[in-house]
Amino acid sequence: MCFGTSSGQLNQLAHYGPIGAISLIIWITISGFHCLTQWFPPDSKDILSVINFLIFWIWPVVIFYNYFRAVFVGPGFVPKGWKPAKIEHEKYLQYCDVCEGFKAPRAHHCKKCRRCVMKLDHHCPWINTCTGHFNHANFCWFMFYAILGCTHALLMLCPCIYRALFAQYYIYARIKNVPIIYFTFVGLISCILSIGLALGVIFAVGFLLIVQLRSIMRNQTGIESWILRKARDRNHRRAKAFIYPYDLGFKENFRQVFNWRESYNVIGDGLIWPVRDGSDEYALTCEQLEQKKDKRQRTVRYEVVQSYKGSYITLRYGFCTCICIPWSDETRMPIEKGDYVLVTRWERYWLYGECVTANETKKNDDIINSHHRLRRRPRGWFPRCCIYEAFRIEDLWSGKINPDSDVVRAQLANFSPEDYDNNDEEYVEQNEENQSDDTASASSASSSSSKTLNQRKNHKEKLI
Q1: How far apart are the C-alpha atoms of 274 and 276, rounded to whole Å?
Q2: Low complexity bias: where (predicted)?
Q3: 3-class secondary structure, 112
């Protein structure tokens, strides 16, 4: 659970992520310092040893400084109930039912933090909050210094352990001017483990830092990169290709995050953003609204024929279902026989959708045109074998099934149902990137469906 950001409360550290990250830093630091004092201890007569000692302790200071700023400063939240200054601009923005306000440009809702986050990149469990507008720079600096600190620790650990393992050789060979290093069994195991942890940090955090710098170079968050990819897939439908509005050039894109001209202070308030010449500040949000409309058209309603309790152990539904689980931390949705599900994402053995209970009454025309629902329906993943499929939707998209066939016509009412909830949380966007190939192919294939399906979808758009 995310206890909230920008609050400065210490209970935000009461989570496996911060506890693990802090423990890892302390472990590697103590092990490295133990080896440093034996192999290259500070000596007033040796200036290099003093410099090495001081640099070694600079790393944990700058690492913890940027880490705690990333945690306690937080990404920045859109105020609850926020509205644009001009009421006519509301039609260009998405409305968040949870925060009861509009989502500012570049803001997305985080299910873990339960708030709309300014310039949301991703929710990071290691800082127990999101990476966003106000803490993006500190998060990157934290990763950068963590890599340098672990590299320095390795330079202390590896030679020290090597000489400890071959201490007898140095003693019998009577090699002078070489410190003889001894380890207890626990100390030796601890230092060897520290080497593995430091290497893991260098490679894992290094990869994440490269991904972050690549995003900063383009002035895109992880979610915006996914939206832009879908926008490019939709370019064949419009006369003018979509242009990403926030790409201000390589140098300016980096300054938007690190801002070396103004003492590294954050630029802007997170609600209004500079755009490139000829672009509109609501271009990306309008594109996302269009993509939401496409997603609504891809929705298919299925009847549940087998109950599922939401468990993570699904061997009773088949061996392949048990091992081919979705690569996502989204919830598993319990469903009961007789319910209906509105499916928006398809995996080979799993589906993601929204549950419509059997006793839920169908909306009338007035409720169809409403933008709000009194009670949000549960969403999540469930085994594909739990629903009845007259045909696999992938076969329809790939052209294996004729859209005008009798079996498709019989299921026509289940395509793009009117009662699908369009107010989808942005947390789904963070996880949709892992299923990009399936969704992208679905988007392109759905545009080439038969005239009958298109007429059905156009009718639904008019209702909404």
Answers
A1: 7
A2: 440-450
A3: coil
- Active site members: 124
Rounded CA gap, 61 and 397, in Å?
55
Q: Count CB atoms within 10 A of the CB of residue 250.
A: 12
CB 137 within 8 A of CB 44: no
Reference 250, options 214, 275, 212; nearest CA is 214
Task: Look up tokens 């369009």; give the residue.
Answer: 422
Q: How far is 309 from 446, CA to CA, in rounded Å?
A: 32
Residue type, 54: L
CA neighbor of 126 nearest in space, from 57, 194, 200, 213: 200
Q: Which amino acid is at 96?
A: C
How far apart, in whole angstroms, are the C-alpha atoms of residue 13 and residue 20?
A: 10
Cβ atoms of residues 106 and 273 within 8 Å: yes
pLDDT at 32: 93
pLDDT tens per residue, range 360-384: 644 444 443 444 444 567 889 999 9
Amino acid at 271: L
**C-alpha dist (Å) from residue 320 to 306, 311, 325, 382, 393:** 17, 15, 9, 13, 19
Q: How far apart are CA 221 and CA 198, in angstroms?
A: 28
| Residues 209-236 as b or e (16 or more Cβ within 10 Å = b) | beebeebbebbbbbbbbbbbebbebbee
Superfamily of domain 290-463: SH3 Domains (2.30.30.40)
201 and 146 Cβ atoms separated by less than 8 Å: yes
Query: What DSSP letter does each residue of 372-422 carry, written as one string?
Result: --SSPPPEEEEEGGGB--SS-HHHHHHTSS-TTSHHHHHTGGGBS-TT---
CA atoms within 13 A on the CB side of 248: 14
**pTM of the predicted structure, to 2 decimals:** 0.77
Report the mean per-residue pLDDT for the chain.
81
Q: What is the mean pLDDT of each run of 10 residues along the chain (464 residues)?
A: 50 90 95 89 87 95 96 92 91 90 93 90 92 94 97 92 75 66 85 94 96 94 90 85 91 92 85 90 90 83 91 90 85 90 89 81 43 64 89 73 74 65 47 43 40 46 42
For β-strands 115-117 and 122-124, DSSP reports them as unpaired
Pinpoint the residues of the chain covered by CATH 2.30.30.40. Answer: 290-463
CA distance 464 to 370: 8
Q: What residue ranges in 187-329 does DSSP mark as E strands?
A: 300-303
Match 């299925």 to its residue by tokens: 302
How many beta carbons lie within 10 A of that of residue 322, not counting itself? 15
